[in-house]
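Holo model, iron/sulfur cluster. Inputs:
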Amino acid sequence: MLTPKNQSLIIERWERRLTFAKEGRARYISHLDLMRTMQRAIKRARVPIWYTQGFNPHMYLMFPLALPLGTDSRTESMDISLTEDIPFDTLLKMLNSSMPEGLYFVKAALPVRKHTDIAAAEYEVEIAPDVPAAEALAKWQEFMAQEEINIEKRTKAKKGKKPGVKQVDIKPHIDVLCAEERENGLFFRMRLPAGVELNLNTGTVMDAFESFSGVNIVDNYTKRTKILCFDGEEFI
Amino acid sequence: MKEIQQKIERLLLKTQKPARYIGGELGSVVKDRDKVDVRFAFCFPDVYDVGMSHLGMKILYGLKNSRENWWCERAFMPEKDFEQQMRENGIPLYALESLDPVRDFDFIGFTLQYELSYTNVLEMLDLAGLPVFARDRKALTPLVVGGGPCVCNPEPVADFFDLFIIGEGEEVNIELLELFERMKPQNPTKEEFLREAAKIEGIYVPAFYDISYNDDGTVREIKPNVPEAPARVKKRVIKDFDSVYYPESFVVPFTSIVHDRAVVEVLRGCIRGCRFCQAGFIYRPFREKNIDTIAKQTRCLCEQTGYEQVSLSSLSTSDHPQIEKLLDTLADYTDSENINLSLPSLRIDNFSDELLEKIASVRKSGLTFAPEAGTQRLRDVINKNVTEDEIMNTCRMAFEAGYGTVKLYFMLGLPEERDEDVVGIAELAQKIVDLYFGIPKEQRASTIQVSLSTATFVPKPFTPFEFEPQALPEEIDRRQKLIMDAIHSKKIRFSYHEQKISKLEAVLARGDRRICDVIYTAWKKGCTLDSWDEHFRPELWDEAFEECGVSREFYANRRREYDEVMPWSHLDYLVSREFLIRENKKAHAAETTRNCREGCSGCGIKQSYGGTYCGKVNS
Ligand code: SF4
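Output:
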């Protein structure tokens, strides 16, 4: 007879919030793959991780906010549970002992805010357009001066409704903190909605800009710099 | 190569599973390109998901990189979408570690695991910016080398390679790279280097052999044309298998691949001698690793990779002399670490209650058997030593242990196959279904599903069936219908393979050098990724054979005489021709041959090769 594992064990859990970086080649790890990658990293590090109970025990890992594929960040969050109370810096050292290129932990702490508090994120975007920077910047200003910025959004099939496309105005959600010329290209800082309620990626904004202006973005380097809560505080 | 990297990154977000094309995985080895003396691009001629699952590559990658001044990197066949993007954007085939173009490497090594990957080799060479024919690559480097099971008959791809590595690679790869490292400072010509390389046991340089043909199209003679090339090239064997190099870590991919887990090789070779099975002959003799070695390697790999699953690799894991003790030892470790132990290739004929329980405890969802033939007589013909009683007993145990799905694999078109053998496949499935319903409800699994799968038999070199014709496609179609008509239960499912693929495989497996032009022509017409149903283009292959004036039937459907010079006669896989003929005759008389553990049958392998049972009459 099969018996569920960990059944008889009474395990106390220590919650930890880890901040990690995902840069360089690691940018192209998809969110789904990241889960697996982190599980293996934790196993290698021999961190006393808490497993769920039942027939098929698995590690408890939780990512409060997904990072878009191709975006760089040093401010990503992952929650884990431990079965032993080990010091934050020891935990960091253990985890960082065997990580793939571009993926590393920068902070371990107790979770403070709830996942559902997350409401926005800040990004830095550097683009190399196929037209002179000044021209591209002028186009950008035109783009942002529009009354509405409508994009097509695919809708999922729901009860009685087929999947389709609908028009959404993203203009009210784009909060541009900075837009300037930099080294033959443009540099932006912007704040976009993130979290369970509403998510907007820089990719969507840039795609909309491309199709509005006819400018081609040849290279694009995007970095998430902050994850913010609804009250404007950083998510910690 | 910043420039290539930038170009690649521009494409990544537009492609499927981009992590496959950028490297950077844990365990991938990055060295300083200015501080290494030999650079080797290990190319797997199929997509990342398939190639990254391959054990041989992991072994040779680790082995070469264990030398500080050698750098071995990986390259795979891109999917069609990315390949097109690479061509449009001027990105040559690059290695995943450095992102440098592979054309700048010293060696480009392909592992040939199946015949249908041959066009991918040409595609990858072309994508690298290199001429596909060896004769058109005049410079010393890159040297294009091939290894793997298919090189037991490398003639159909001989024109594309500079040399082949025959047999097991762990020692000969080192010898070859050492030779290169020694000679490179003297700036040898390609021919000078190849002549020296040809002296290494296990190295076959195809350009150093002339082939002549008889009027009937068969090979007359294969003769070396330089003194350095031996008349017969002997395959390499690792004599002390227990202490052979094994990697301490694997490259751990980000994206999911076909077999995404730690793998430990527990034994090499096979004691069984199934007459259709090429692996059973070309990997002889049987050698196993000690339990302690396996346990140590399992632990080490799991710790280094963080994998949640480990599997034991071999042709037949249950033939390990101490299989139960081995599983005990491993299960203790894997259980305590929340690691899943998976055991493919367990045979049914030596399943014990105890073993079955172990497997149950590692949560497998179904049972897979390969009786290969539907009747005992035909199983005797192919020397597949599985009896119906054993199948029934195992199924009974399985049903009682709660398994509800049974998958059965068979071959169609075997030598001596008669209609009653074909119908026997459906009958066997029916008996299994009846067996299930004969067990009281409360003692058996809740559902039953028997899946039958048939593949067309492809005769392979270095097997007792290398002389046999492949059955014609129309005949196979007829036999498939026979099975379908004989199935009367909804609990039985039947699936079969595409005929055109099997026939092509049969030609490529036993072809000679005249097939090189056909492969080239088919590739030119756009054939690549032939092993993928969605990419296989039989009509283009048809055209290629036609244009080259090559008859497929000559290679696939002709019976070869025992004294015919085979296109691979100059390669010595240590198993004697006499033995293969003896086995072929026994097959036609439906006589079995005992397995190596029961007693050596004198296949020709010398005791000095380290085989566990070689030369022993009884154990
Ligand atoms: S020499 Fe004997 S024991 Fe060794 S592989 Fe051949 S038949 Fe088997």
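The mean pLDDT of chain B is 93. Chain B has 20 helices and 19 strands.
Archived with the compound record.
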